[in-house]
Design a protein that fits this description.
Belongs to the cytochrome P450 family. It is found in: Cytoplasm. By secondary structure, this protein is α+β, with helices and mostly antiparallel strands. The chain is about 50% helix and about 10% strand. It is built from 15 helices and eleven strands. It has a six-stranded mixed beta sheet with strand order 1-2-3-9-6-4. Strand 7 and strand 8 (about 305) form a beta hairpin. Helix 6 packs parallel to helix 15 (about 355-370). The termini are far apart. The chain binds protoporphyrin IX containing FE. Protoporphyrin IX containing FE binds near residues 103, 241, 245, 354 and 357.
Length: about 400
């Protein structure tokens, strides 16, 4: 068993990516030399990071691991993130039986059948946005004009929230997911969102529709099974988790394709390869690398290291998804590999509830943009792009393009 040397200052985490399309180079060295490594977080707290696929998977599947934000040591990377989550209790940061109850409320809305039924709506949103870009072009900022607009419209449509103000939700996420945001800033941003959603809850109580918010109100709030705050936090985390991640994947995925003309040409020649490409992009980019935050509730031995009960653990999805023991030549986009066992959507009881919807959005967004704007290119050098190194999920704020 490795004993922890308490006199040494552990390395700082998060570790920045050197290349936007690859995980930090340090992950490979850690995986070999120190697969369970002690780190210091921006909050000043310490935690363990895991870099091996098998360790990430077994820890995330372990029923004795906790994701409850009320644990002081939940290893949040944002300054006010844990404290704000301990108050607003998004179910991503809760444990069973509480977590199970919330998750069941949503499950019916995320079945394969329900998600499939969203295809025509997503396709028409994507087509409309490309029409608008073309009409205003031939230049655009791809993030607000396309990536954010596709993902936010889709999740708001599902939730039953008017889609008029896409930027409102972008701002909420920018603050609530920003690593430098204080507890007060996060709480205020979430408060604005809950106020806005609260008015909709009142309206759905008397005039329900077919959307997710209406279902939560009719089937859970009005039956007394859930209270108002629970409905608000469930719908709120679904919107936040669903829009920022997918925005980042659409933008960063497009950017990677633009940098690989041979891959782009292969996809144009055979669009049936788009779904496989989406899987590989999800794996290689792993934009939600450090989203799974956990606390050990008992002493655990992981790859020969003792993690004491009460310590924080970050199960690094990007590190797991580029473990060469599982994915040979891990940084390569290889459409021939059966990529579905990657963990870009996490693993275990918190595994992404929106993954089928995310796949569908990516498939439609990337497939359509490749077909309709064959001359799409970056309008500035790659080195001038501003990547979100300090956000909960990795991506871009802005991506000037022309065609
Ligand atoms: C490419 C896009 C996406 C990625 C990479 C992603 C990634 C993830 C990951 C890694 C988790 C697990 C977190 C953990 O274990 O702590 C998660 C959970 C979650 N995701 Fe996603 N997600 C995406 C899209 C979506 C969409 C479109 C929605 C909904 C519309 C969504 C809603 C959620 C929710 C509600 C949870 C919490 C589940 C739970 O705790 O049981 N996500 N996501």
């Amino acid at each position: 068993m490795t004993e922890q040397n308490t006199t040494e200052t552990p390395r700082q985490f998060p570790i920045r990516r050197e290349c936007p399309f690859s995980q930090p180079a340090a992950y490979a060295a850690l995986r070999t030399d120190e697969p369970v490594a002690r780190v210091t977080l921006p909050t000043g707290k310490q935690a363990w990071i895991l870099t091996r696929y098998d360790d990430v998977r077994s820890v995330l599947a372990d029923p004795s691991i906790s994701a409850d934000a009320r644990h002081e040591n939940l290893p949040a990377l944002g300054l006010g993130e844990r404290e704000a989550a301990a108050k607003s209790r998004p179910f991503i940061r809760t444990d069973p039986p509480e977590h199970t109850r919330y998750r069941r409320m949503l499950q019916a809305e995320f079945t394969v059948k329900r998600v499939k039924s969203m295809r025509p709506g997503i396709q028409s949103t994507v087509d409309r946005l490309i029409d608008e870009m073309e009409a205003a072009g031939p230049t655009a900022d791809y993030v607000p004009a396309f990536a954010n607009a596709v993902s936010t419209s889709t999740v708001l449509e599902l939730a039953g929230v008017p889609t008029a103000d896409l930027e409102f939700f972008r701002d909420v996420t920018r603050i609530s997911g920003g690593r430098n945001s204080s507890e007060q800033e996060v709480t205020a941003a979430l408060g604005n969102m809950f106020r806005m959603l609260g008015e909709l809850v009142d309206r759905r109580t008397t005039d329900p529709g077919e959307d997710l918010l209406s279902k939560l109100v009719v089937n859970h709030l009005l039956t007394g099974e859930a209270d108002r705050q629970e409905v608000l936090s469930t719908i709120g985390i679904t919107i936040i988790a669903g829009r920022e991640t997918t925005t980042n994947m659409i933008a960063l995925g497009t950017l990677l394709l633009l940098e690989r003309p041979e891959l782009l040409a292969a996809l144009r020649a055979d669009p049936s390869r788009v779904p496989d490409t989406v899987e590989e992009l999800l794996r290689v980019l792993s934009i939600a690398d450090s989203i799974p935050l956990r606390v050990a509730t008992r002493d655990m031995d992981v790859s020969g290291t003792r993690i004491p009960a009460g310590d924080g653990i970050i199960a690094l999805l990007g590190a797991a998804n580029t473990d060469p023991e599982v994915f040979g030549a891990p940084d390569e986009i290889d459409l021939s590999r059966a990529g579905r066992h990657h963990m870009a959507f996490g693993y275990g009881i918190h595994q992404c509830i929106g993954q089928n919807l995310a796949r569908l959005e990516l498939e439609i967004a990337l497939g359509t943009i490749i077909r309709r704007l064959p001359d799409l290119r970056l309008a500035v050098p790659l080195a001038e792009l501003d990547f979100k190194h300090d956000a909960a999920t990795f991506g871009l704020e802005s991506m000037p393009v022309d065609w």
